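Q: Protein A?
A:
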Amino acid sequence: MKPTFKSPALTLFSATGLLASTGIALAAVSVGDTLGNTEDDVRAALSSLGYMVEDIETEDGEIEAEVLMDGQEMDVVVDARSGQVLEMELEDPEGEETDDD
């Protein structure tokens, strides 16, 4: 009988590929994450995580980005000095914001 070889790295790689192919998001932004302290840095960080940045602006020391992912709209508020996410607000279907900080 031929011996079976199982590699933990291969198993992890296969599981990661399975998750990605089923559409499960592997990366998401959370309050406290550091995205950068300029609009360009924040846009690049969010885009690299799969978010589509619809609008971004700096106001009163905060960078506010309106993003879309998997049909869900949300606002991400980042401290312009530290680059950390201060809050995330999900848009509900009626257009009202729900605070997720």
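Q: Protein B?
A:
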Amino acid sequence: MRTLTAAKRNGKPYTLYLSDELSSALASASERRKIDKSVIVRIAIEKLLNELESGQLQLPLGIQ
């Protein structure tokens, strides 16, 4: 699997803590689809934000 070098990365770095179950699922999807995990996470966040912005998804305030 190809990883991005620091020179090819763009944007701000974020630290994300995932449960073992989510981490395993992400690694599995990355391996199956031959896509870097960071790309999968970026696509998922973009989709989430687009759905929130368009009103397709409603999240309660103050999720814990």
